[in-house]
Amino acid sequence: MDSQIKQIHQQLMNKDISCVKLVQERLDLLKANTNNTVNSLLDTIALQLAAKVDTKIANGETIGILEGIPFGIKDVYMLQGTYTTASSNLLKYYKSAYTATAIQKLLDVGAIPIVKENCDSFGHGSSSENTIFGAVKNAINPDLVGGGSSGGSAVNVAKDYTVFSIGGDTGGSVRQPAGYNHVYGLKPTYGRISRYGLMAYASSTDCVGPIAKSVEDIRLVLNVMSGKDVKDQTTYASAEISESSISNSRDIKTIGYFKNFIESEAIDPDIKADFLASIEKIKAKGIKVKELDFFKSDILVSTYYTLAMAETASNLSRLDGSNYGNRIEDKNLKESYAITRSENFSEETKRRIVGGNQVLSQGFSDEIYLKGLALRDSISENFKKDFEEVDIILSPVTPATPPKIGESLKDPLAMYLSDAYTVGFSLGQLPTLTIPQGTETGLQITAAKNNDELVLKFANFLKDTI
User: Among the options 87, 149, 238, 426, which is catalytic?
Assistant: First the structure.
C-alpha cells in the first residue's frame, strides 16, 4: 500500500477534505468500534488542532507532511491533561502532568492525537486481554486476540481508525500485534527514540515504536520521533532516513535465518512452510541465504522474562497509592500499601512483580538475575558475529497464529512462549520490523544496531518479492 500519510496530505492541500471532517470521521469510527480499542477519545483537543490546520490551509499556508494527520497513542504514554491509565485499575483516574518526548515531537510537527489505545495493563501480556477495558479483538477475526501488549494500537491501524499509532515494544509488543493484524510495526534500535514519558516496563528493552500500513509511513513517523533527548540518557543522535535511501536493496547481498526457530516443535506447520517458501523466493532474486545457529527459544524466553520481571518489579514499586494511583486506606501505612497494590494490580502484573522480587532477592540474585545478565551479553555477542556474515536476519514473528480470546488467560506459559521469536532481538537491542507478508502472522526483518535504514530498505524489497 502506498503512503496514507502522503495521500491524506495531498487531499488536505487540495482542499478535497477538511481536517476537521477527516478527524471527525475517524473519531466517529472509534466511537462505534466493537473491537475494544479505545480507552479514551481525545475529541476536544483533536478537533481544536484540526480547526487550526484548516485555518492555515485557508490562508494559503503550506502544511508539513504530518500536519493534520490523526494518530493513536498506546495508553502508556504521557499526554498532558489526558487520562493515562496503562489499562489498569491503579491508574484509572490518573491524568498526565506532562507529555512524552516522542509524542511531543509529533505534536510539534502538527500530527493530531485522537485516541488513547487499549493495551495489556502496564504492557504485561501478549494478547491485550489483561486490561480493565475488555479484551482487544483482532481486526481480521474478532474471535481472536488482538495481540499484545500494543493490541489496540495495531487494530486501530488495521481498521483505518487511525492513520498510524504509537505503540511500545519491550519484548515484541509492537511486532507481535502488528503480525496478528497484518500491518507494519517497528521496534527501532534501542535509544533511537526517547523513552521519556513512557511508563517503564523493562527499562533496558523498552522502545517507542510506530505502527502503520506502509513502509513509507513508518519511515516518516520514525524520522520525526528519533533523536537525542537530554531527558533520556540512553538516546543518541541519528541521521534522517531518506525515501531514496530505502528505494533499492543492491547492497543487501546475504540474509540469514535461525534454523532452530524453523526446526522447533512449537512452530505451526503452515507458518514453517510459508516461511521456507519466502526464503526460496528471496534466493530466486540472487540473494544468498545462510542458516544461522542461535540460542534455543526457551532460553531466550526465560532470559527475557527473568530480566523483564526484575525490572518491572523495581519500576512499579513507586505505584503504592501514596504518590500515584487509587489509594485504599487500611489500619496502617503498610497495610494500605499492601491492599492498594493487591486490589488494583491485575493478576498478570502481580505475577510479574512477585517473580521479579524473587529474582532480585538475597540468595537468588546471583543464581538467577546475574546469570540472566550474562546470557544477555552472550546473546548480543552472538548477534555481532551473525552480522559479520549476513546483512539481514529474517524470521517468523510468532510460532503460531493468534489464539482465541480467553485461551491465553488460562495458560500464562503459552502466552510467554508466543514471544519466542521476538524477545531475542529485544535483548540484543536491535532494529526489527514486522511486515504483513510471508506467513499468516508476517515476517520479522532485523539488522545490526543503528541500522534501521537497512531494515526499511529490505522491507521495500520484499514488497515485490514475496
Answer: 149
